[in-house]
Amino acid sequence: MVENIRIHILVVDDDRGILELVRRSLEHEGYQVDTIEDPSVVLKINLEWYQLIILDVMMPKMDGFSLCAELRNRVDCPILFLTAKSEEGDLIKGLGAGGDDYITKPFGIGELRARVAAHLRREKRERKHLLEAGGVQFQIQAKKMSYQGREIPMTKSEYAICEYLAVNLGQVFSKERIYEAVYGYDGESDASAITEHVKNIRAKCKQYGLEPIETVWGIGYRWKAE
Fold first, then answer.
1. For residues 96 and 179, which has the higher predicted lDDT (pLDDT)?
2. pTM for the whole thing?
3. 23, 45, 64, 157: most buried by Cβ count inside 10 Å?
């Protein structure tokens, strides 16, 4: 249970009884669980804290499939559906909307816990190649970064600077330390190049409404958490 203490799960269902059942069951395993009855509220909150999201399918205002499709523009964590429907067409629709799994009501508590644990284990392995910091998503292996589903074009050096700061979220580094981390001690330029790269990064990010790199005067730069 201790290893789950920092894992946050969001559960969305218009049935208060189901919400309470799921919440108690998962909190028993050590997860931190937030519940929401109104699906329209979900898109208004900060979703970066959640490692897994559980959605009911049949809800007023917005069904689970539509909500999932919207969420996929903002998160890449596992999304599980809770639904009374079991037809193959609904399953295909749910997975096509970006869902990762499908649990049919009525469900057993043991099954729910096992599915959640399995997806979190898989997510932990895959996260080695994915990173999100301050709303920006990084594909570590592909060396790409994006915001709300749109890729932010960066040069190799610009991406390397962003990744280094994002991996060390909130920490302040001098331009000399950033230069060493990106180019090594044998780099052919000098640390002043970092200032110009940061200027270019900021200009590109500004086009997406982002200002992720903060200057800490007299010290250096850091990637903002929000």
1. 179
2. 0.56
3. 64
